[in-house]
Amino acid sequence: MNNRALLFCLSGVLMSGVVHAATQETPSEFSATLPTYYGLPQQTHAAGSKSSVPAQSSEPPVEHSLLPIWGDEARARGYDLPEPFGINVNYMNMRQNIVVDSISFSGLSIFGTPLPADMFNIKVGHTRQQSKTETIKLDAWLFPFMNIYGLVGHTRGSSLSKIDVALRDGQVLYKNIDFKLNFKGTTYGAGTVFAGGYGNWFGLVDMNYTQTRFDILDGSIDAFTLSPRVGYRFTTPGIDTIGLPNGKLSLWVGSMYQDVQQEFKGNINDLSMPAELVGLIQMANTKGQGRFDVRQHLSSPWNVLIGAQYEITRNFNLTSEVGFAERNSFFIAGEYRF
Length: 338
What we know:
By secondary structure, this protein is mainly beta. 9% of the residues lie in helices and 55% in strands. It has helices spanning 2-7, 12-17, 26-29, 71-76, 275-284, and strands spanning 85-106, 109-110, 113-114, 120-143, 146-167, 172-198, 201-214, 221-236, 247-260, 263-267, 291-298, 302-311, 316-324, 327-337.
């Protein structure tokens, strides 16, 4: 009986590794839109905001008549818009807690005897997941107040769970078993940003939808992310000795909401099992038909964001952002606009 119970410890493999990697970050997509999405004029006014002091420049930026739509009208009214197209290279490191609601298995048997899904009661304690995501994002200003973008990236990470295995009558067979999972996958997504401002103040809302295909799951994991932010923009002095012009520094606070698919299914053979369990798994899954089904949710869908962006030139900027509370994250990106 103990050997059978031990087999079900593999449940911990799923619950933590899959939850966030679908967003990664996700994760990453949202902050990359920050660099020049405010349409801030050269006199440090935010997008959709009108400069009270006429912008002065010996070399005015090239105007694009195609995008954004209504861009010429906005410029005629004194608004200074960012370059219409951008390419971003982003990196995000994220850690968060996960709550596992249920775990079930099917298609397993020992010595030809099928194992019922409710034979064991598997309880999952603390589960902590960490992931790293690199993405490339292409964007364009469709309107002076609206940006659209697409992205592709790669996510890798690991998770660690504490698992208790008990019989249906409550007898505990194994307690506080550590189970670690390594996972990786490819993320695709698209999103939009709505931005505006008044004077040096700005606000924006970023929404995106992503799909991630993991090496241990069937199909893809869907995720929706919503990130509102509000901030203030400063003008920084240039450095004549190295020919660095005046720059612009933006600081903001915000929040991020994540809605991630909460049910994960796959083949047990796709899981990387600890050496101690390999023999048992092979014995109970001789036909290769063993399946898992895990249902879970994020410990908290919201977290707090603080970030900064430095516009070195009109065409190049750097962005960094940290998240804390229930979900800890670090984000950094470089953007080129043209």
